[in-house]
């Protein structure tokens, strides 16, 4: 039996023999050279990058896109919302506004959302 090497996963897949899922960036270990060659030819594993397997696959690295020091998402990331993100398309050309109102047409929904924002700015004590 040969020494097991970890191969970098470059496209997510589920192993057909073990049914284990492998995410992009994770390591795939197998001592079967034919299986490694098969996965490389299918584009799931990097062809040239082989590393020694680590004892612990869990790392303290933050999720992709996060700054290691602050753990905050970078600017322009999912933390920033746009008007379109605040609308929910419910089908048939209808959009649901944050206040629960349903409006037909995207442009009309965006206008109604702007009107809601302006009304909230004009009368902040309206909720009392």
Question: Total number of helical segments?
Answer: 3
Largest sheet: 3 strands, antiparallel
Helical percent range? 10-25%
Q: What is the subunit arrangement here?
A: single chain
Q: What value does the average pLDDT take?
A: 75
How far apart are the termini? 74 Å
Low-confidence runs (pLDDT<50, min 5 residues)? 56-60
User: How big a fraction of the residues is strand?
Assistant: 15-25%
> Which value, in Å, is the CA radius of gyration?
24 Å
**Widest sheet, order of strands:** 4-1-5
Shape: rod-shaped
Q: Strand-and-helix sequence, N→C?
A: EEEEHEHEEEH
| Strands, total number | 8
Structural class by secondary-structure content: alpha+beta
Protein architecture, described:
The protein is α+β, with helices and mostly antiparallel strands and 128 residues long. Among the domains are: 47 residues; 40 residues, no CATH class. It has three helices and eight strands. A hairpin with a 2-residue loop joins strand 6 and strand 7. The longest helix has 17 residues. The chain starts with a strand and ends in a 6-residue tail after the last helix.
Q: Briefly, what is this?
A:
This protein is α+β, with helices and mostly antiparallel strands. 23% of the residues lie in helices and 23% in strands. It has helices spanning 33-41, 83-86, 106-122; strands spanning 5-9, 13-14, 21-22, 27-30, 45-51, 88-91, 94-96, 102-104.
How would the blueprint of this fold be written?
Blueprint: E1 5-9, E2 13-14, E3 21-22, E4 27-30, H1 33-41, E5 45-51, H2 83-86, E6 88-91, E7 94-96, E8 102-104, H3 106-122
Biased composition (Acidic residues): 49-61
Region (Disordered): 47-93
